[in-house]
Amino acid sequence: MRRRRWFAIAGLLAGVFLLVGAVLPAFPDLAGHVYELPIRLLARRGVVQGFPDGSFRPFQFLTRGELAKLLAVALGDAGEAARLAAALPRFSDLAGHWSRGYVEMAAELGLVQGYPDGTFKPDQPVTRAELVVLAARAAGLAEKAGQAPPDAPVPYRDAGEIPPWARPYVWAAAEEGLLDGLFPGRLLPNRGATRAEAAALVARLAARQGRFYDLSGTVVAWDPEERLLTVETGAGERKTLRLAPDALVVRGGAPSEEIRPLDQVWAGLGPRGEVEFLDVRFQDLLGESPRVEGNQITLVEKGKEAVHTISLTPATRIFVNGRPATVQDLHGAQWVYVVRDLSTGAARILDAVRYTHYGMVIWTDPKEGWLGFQAEDGEDGRYLELRLAPDAVLFYQGRRITLAELRPGMRAVIEVDGETVQYLQVDDENL
């Protein structure tokens, strides 16, 4: 039962990070590439560069030295890397190597490690598994990875091929949304990581740390005709921006003009304050069997059987059966729809459903406020004649409806107090 309800906006991002008006470089071999925007944004900050012929070569494999530079420049200080290049190398095979300062800095940050023989092997290609491990460390997920359950579930069909040392990090990165859409279906953990894949992942890290965009927040309103976008920042300030006629809008890595309330957006502004590029993202999931412990909720993702543990914050908006609620009210809920913060992985919105029966609507009497319902739960099920409470909440396809809009034959879940319906939600998937 996929439900998206448009509640008030909460739990946003904040920050002004780049010099407004900086040029957004373009590479001819990146046009239409799924990671075009993050790579161009990294180039805008001087983190990545193209080749003398103007190309980026997105499918070329990356070496360990190149990845160290990418991480050090994106997340650290290039000047510090130059200073460290003059110090004694901690790895025996880095003397005279161009990446020496970057590797030293990445090691200082705890992002990279060498081999037992004291070498770093800077010219060795980086595997996808290694890339994810380094990205997880850079995202501060080492502690979470250390708490990974045995045989930690990961969202890849080739999970059995992931090396044991990498699996906890892959699990932690996937749990935090860091890998969403990056390696669809299969991770291919032992395959070399490409320049584009590494740049896209590092761009996500930079965005999580607030180093990437001029403005970020959550969409409050979007007027496509006037091209006016209203965003609320983490400080609670609302800003209305105009998108430039040729603005590059990317949703989930692909060019798109779709912008919706509750979307999280990261914007780059031009010299006149217009949005020149916009990265639009939205992450949600529907879970079953929720269990609340402290400031976390654990649930099983519907249809995937993946277990997620999601942090709750004071900014998390909680609803149960369409009404504002507290964490304590979540106990006993069967389903929870979660909208996550892509920067922190925490829940922005929890929309829970708690019901006493599921079954089919048999008849309705809108004038008197009654309905007939054939319950199908339990061993025998039973027929119920029920009155709607004065403040009953009825939902269908993500919106509130009246009893007059309810039709015989609709399948639904209901919460009943005695013979009174407090909540009813039509199951869209089983009509």
Could you describe the 3D structure shown?
- With 431 residues, the protein is α+β, with helices and mostly antiparallel strands.
- It has 3 domains: 28-208, no CATH class; 283-353, OB fold (Dihydrolipoamide Acetyltransferase, E2P), CATH 2.40.50; 357-430, OB fold (Dihydrolipoamide Acetyltransferase, E2P) (Beta Barrel), CATH 2.40.50.
- Helices cover 18% and strands 30% of the residues.
- The protein has 8 helices and 19 strands.
- The strands form 3 sheets. It has a 7-stranded mixed β-sheet, with no helix packed on it. Strands 1-2-3-6-5 form a 5-stranded mixed beta barrel. The protein has a 5-stranded mixed barrel with strand order 14-15-16-19-18.
- Helix 3 crosses helix 4.
- It starts with 35 loop residues before the first helix and ends in a 5-residue tail after the last strand.
- The relative contact order is 0.12.
